[in-house]
Amino acid sequence: MDAALLLALGLLAQSLGLSLELPGLRKPSTLYPWRRAPGLGRVRRAWVIPPISVSENHKRLPYPLVQIKSDKQQLGSVIYSIQGPGVDEEPRGVFSIDKFTGKVSLNAMLDREKTDRFRLRAFALDLGGSALEEPTDLEIVVVDQNDNRPVFRQEVFTGRVLEGAVPGTYVTKAEATDADDPETDNAALRYSILEQGGPQLFSIHEHTGEIRTVQVGLDREVVAVHNLTLQVADMSGDGLTATALAIITLEDVNDNAPAFTRDEFFMEATEAISGVDVGRLQVEDRDLPGSPNWAARFTILEGDPDGQFAIRTDPRTNEGVLSVVKPLDYESCEQYDLKVAENPLRTSLAEGAAAGTPVATFAAQDPDTQQLQRLSYSKDYDPEDWLQVDGATGQVQTQRVLSPASPFLKDGWYRAIILVHDNASPPCTATGTLSIEILEVNDHAPELSSPSGSLCSEPDQGAGLVLGAVDEDLPPHGAPFHFQLSPRVPELARNWSVSQVNVSHVRLRLRHQVQEGLHRLSLLLRDSGQPPQQREQLLNVTVCRCGQDGTCLPGASALRSGGAGLSLGALVILLASVILLLLLALPVALVARSRQRSWDKGLLPGLQDDLRDNILNYDEQGGGEEDQDAYDISQLRHPTGALGTPLGRPLLRRDAPFGQARPPPPRLLPTSPADIADFINDGLEAADSDPSVPPYDTALIYDYEGGGSVAGTLSSILSSLGDEDQDYTCLRDWGPRFARLADLYGPP
C-alpha cells in the first residue's frame, strides 16, 4: 500500500471520528464524544456515542475497546477517567482507561447472563484537575454467545390419554429454558422426539413443546405405557441439545367384552340344601384388571324357571360364582342345564349403515316377580355417540353413519354398554355389553398411487415404469388389483404392455420405440371385492432419452416437466397465439412511433439530443417519507398576504375587461421550421389577450414566502422596460435546446 493511499485513508478515518486500523494490528476505534457537529444556522449539539459491543467470554485480555479524545487540548495535556459499574463499582476492575491516551480496555471475562450491559461516565480534565468537557455517557453492550445449553424444566414429563383417542388429542407439554439472549438464535429452542419405541403414535410441536396423538391405534391392551425420549436444541434446532423423558399412560376404556374360558362347565349340588356355592365360571377380559371396565356381570338366561340358582361376580378373580338359593329335589329333576351369559350381545352391521338402521334389542328380566316394576334402558358407554336407545323397549339403532376411520373401531368391532334400571326404591341397575361387527363393504375403487412417471424411449433400456394402486376398502375388498390398458383405446396395446409385479403393482413397458415427449395412457383398475369396483384413470408418461443407467438424461428435463400440465400441442398453440399478438401489435407501435417523430421534427428540429434534466437534492435535513405535511401546496398555487387575493380565486389582469372571452379557435401546427417564430409570436399574443392569466412579459411568482425581505430581487425582470437590455447569448452555454432559443431571441 503506497504512502498516498495511506494518507487518504487516514484523512477519511479522521473525518469520520475513527482511527485507522491496519490488518494484523488491533487498535481501538477513536471517538471524539465532545466534538460538536458542524452546521450552518443550526443548534449545535454534542455527538451521541453509539453503544460499544464486546463479546462475552473474551479470553485475550486486556482487550482494547475504544479510545476517546478531547480536541480542546493538545495530546498529553488532557487527563481521562471513567466511572461506573465495572470500574469503581461492583464488579470492580472489569474496565480501565489510560489517563493520557483515553484508551478503554477490557480486563476480565464477561458473562452476559450476569450483566448484559455496562453504563459508564467518561471525563476529560486538564492537568490542573479542571473539567475540560461535560461528562459523557459510555455504554458497553455484552454480546451473547451460545455458551448455555438448554435445560428441560423437568427430567420426566408425564401425561395420560384415553386409549383409542382421535389424532390431535392433547397429551402433555414439555418445557425448556435457555439462559442465553432470548432475542438471538442462541435461545431459539426447537423440540423433537428422538425415540418412542414403536410406531409413530405421538408428535411434539417444535415451537410449543405440546405432545399430541397423531395416529389411531392407541391400545392399552397392547402397550399400556409409552416412553418418549424428547430433545430440545437451541440455534433453531442446530445448536446445543438436552434430553428428557415423557411417560404417557393410556387410560382404559371398556373396549373388550368378557369371554368364558370354556363353552361348558360341569358342577354338582346336594339336594335339600340351599345357600351354598356349587362352582365357578372363569372368564377373560382384556380390560384393566380391577377396573369397572373389567368387572364381569353374569346372567342366567335359560334353564332356571323357578329361580333356584343365582350367580354373582367375585370382585377379586372376576369369576362367576354359581350358588343354590332354593333347595333342590333330585326326584323332581336330577340335572339342570343352565344357559349363562357374561352379558354381551353380539351382532353385525354393514359398513356405512344409514341413520335409523336397527342394531339390536335388549330384553332384561327382573327376578323380583312378586312386585311389578317398570324397566328403562339408556346408554352407559358409546364413545362415538353413534347409537340411540329406546328407553322403553331397549331397541338400539344408529343415529348417523359411522366413519370407517373411527379410532374406536378396533379390528372391525365397535363396543357399547347399555344400562337398564328399574323403578324400585332403591332402584337396581344392570349393564349389558353390545359388540357390533362392522362388515366391510366394497364401496371404493382402486386408484393409482402416482398418476405420472417417466420411461426410456428405447424398449430395452431401463427397468420400465412400476405402477402401484391403493384402495380405501379393507380386505378382502382391496388387493390383488387388476391393471389393464383401456379397451376403449385398442391402439394402446400395440405400443405398451403391462405385467404383474405383485398383488398391488405392475410394470409398464414399451413394445417398440415411440416419439419422445408426453403420452397420456388410459388405464382400467379393478379390485377383488364382491362385487368388484373399477376405475378408469389417466396416466401421464414422459418418454425420454436415457443413459446407460436407464435414467432420463438431463436434456430431457423439459419434456418431463410437461407431465404436470400442458401437452405439446397445447404449448404450440399457446406460443403461436403469443407470436400472432406480437405481430398485430408491431404495426400499431410503428405507426405511433412514426407520428411522434414527425411531430418532434416539425416542431423543433435539431432538438433530438438525448438530454435529461434532473433535480438533484444535495442536502435535505428535514421531512422525509413520513413528512407529508411540511408544505401547503395550495399556498404555492394561490398565494395570499401581500398579493391580497383570497384562496381559491384565480388572478385576473387589471388591464383586461371583466367577463369571459370567447375561446380562440384551434391553432394549426407549423408545417415548416420557418413558421415556428410566427407560431410562437401568435401564442404570446393570445396569452396576452387572455384575461384569466397575467401577460407573458409579467413576472410569474412561483413561490411566495412573505413580504419584507431584506434581500433584493433575484432578477431584473420586473424593472425591465423592454427586450433590448436582455442578453440571450448565455443560453448557448446551457446545451443544444437552449442554443435554439438563443438563435430565436438573440441578435442575428
Please give a structural write-up:
The chain is an alpha+beta fold and 748 residues long. Among the domains are: 52-143, Immunoglobulin-like; 151-251, Immunoglobulin-like (Sandwich), CATH 2.60.40; 258-340, Cadherins (Immunoglobulin-like), CATH 2.60.40; 344-439, Immunoglobulin-like, CATH 2.60.40.60; 447-544, Cadherins (Immunoglobulin-like). Helices cover 11% and strands 29% of the residues. The chain contains seven helices and 39 strands. Strands 1-3-6-5 form a four-stranded mixed sheet, with no helix packed on it. A four-stranded mixed sheet has the order 2-8-7-4, with no helix packed on it. The chain has a four-stranded mixed sheet with strand order 10-17-16-13, with no helix packed on it. The longest helix has 36 residues, at 568-603. The radius of gyration is 49 Å and the shape is extended. The model is unreliable at 1-25, 39-46, 557-565, 603-661 and 711-723 (pLDDT under 50).
